[in-house]
UniProtKB/TrEMBL annotation:
Record-listed E.C. numbers: 2.7.4.3
One Gene Ontology molecular-function label: AMP kinase activity
Main enzyme class: transferase
Pfam families: ADK
PANTHER family: NUCLEOTIDE KINASE
Name of protein: adenylate kinase
InterPro entries for the chain: Adenyl_kin_sub, Adenylat/UMP-CMP_kin, Adenylat_kinase_CS, P-loop_NTPase
Organism encoding this protein: Dioscorea cayennensis subsp. rotundata
Superkingdom classification of source: Eukaryota
């Protein structure tokens, strides 16, 4: 805990003096981004890279399978900040021969949460390594997941935005079960073809599969915690432990909700619009 506190305090101080890393494509996002989220109010669009503000510090919340990783990764490339997923940090640790590996595997494979101490330790190390390489700002994905983690983060940094991605639960389960990773290149794919009719006032939803290129097809693996039983347990734990985190940020006026309307090509431009981010290349990247 102390490590994260010390580290984030140092990063925040250093970052305040830094200008935003200019992303490769033309990105325009709201003035005063550092001061608070854009909650749909009218915001003057300016090029933030000219303002000399610090890089964004965002958090992505959302149930397992909602697509936090996909959208956080795209936005991190667009905004020139690192995408830090605590699930990836946990998986890296458990695939290592480190002392925690066995203990972590047992927890993750049951769909339970790793202790706050362990996650904070892994996150601190990741942030320290990033800062040594000159990184600043972040999009955190999968952290905080408990009120305690949220309180610790709040004690050491001032988030600009907490984005809560939402999708109906039956679709979340299908998406988790369809996830595949290429064991060679690490690419993330999804073989599920989702087509749910609208009912009881809920809109229908269509999501095309995200299929791998042919050279990855024979190398696809499934995450060991993406079985139906474990996904349901992860959803249960999300509702019990992480829903309160949504309320925590709502009460601070930081939470912005985003209902995913469909697959990436449909959702990505709408997400950029909701965030008041203009990406001149978005048509090409949405189709990628
Ligand atoms: N912030 C966190 N706190 C506790 N455990 C975490 C945290 N982030 C990740 N984990 C552990 O890593 C697992 C995988 O996380 P993640 O890849 O984010 O999965 P999901 O698809 O459920 O969002 C979680 O089920 C949990 O065991």
């Amino acid at each position: 805990m102390a490590a994260l506190s010390r580290f984030l305090r140092a990063t925040a101080t250093a970052a305040r003096g830094m200008s935003t890393v200019a992303p490769e494509s033309s990105v325009i996002y709201p003035a005063g981004l550092a001061a608070g989220p854009n909650m749909g109010s009218s915001v003057t669009l300016v090029e933030t890279r000219d303002l000399g503000e610090r890089n964004v510090q965002w958090v992505f919340l959302g149930c397992p399978g909602v697509g936090k990783g996909t959208y956080a990764s795209r936005l991190s490339q667009l905004l020139g900040v690192p995408h830090i997923a605590t699930g990836d940090l946990v998986r890296e640790e458990l695939s290592s021969s480190g002392p925690l590996a066995q203990q972590l595997a047992a927890i993750v494979n049951q769909g339970k949460l790793v202790s706050d101490e362990i996650v904070i330790d892994l996150l601190s190390k990741r942030l320290e390594n990033g800062a040594a390489k000159g990184e600043s700002g972040f999009i955190l994905d999968g952290f905080p997941r408990t009120i305690r983690q949220a309180e610790i983060l709040e004690g050491v940094t001032d988030l600009d935005l907490v984005l809560n991605l939402k999708l109906r639960e039956d679709v979340l389960i299908e998406k988790c079960l369809g996830r595949r990773i290429c064991s060679q290149c690490g690419g993330n794919f999804n073989v599920a073809s989702i087509s749910v009719k609208g009912e009881n006032g809920m809109p229908g939803i269509y999501m095309a599969p995200l299929l791998p290129p042919s050279h990855c097809t024979s190398k696809l693996i499934t995450r060991s915690d993406d079985t139906e039983e474990v996904v349901k347990e992860r959803l249960r734990i999300y509702n019990e432990m992480s829903k309160p985190v949504e309320e925590f940020y709502t009460s601070r006026g930081k939470l912005q909700e985003f209902d995913l309307p469909g697959g990436i090509s449909e959702s990505w431009p709408k997400l950029l619009e909701a965030l008041n981010i203009e990406d001149s290349d978005h048509k090409q990247s949405a189709a990628a």
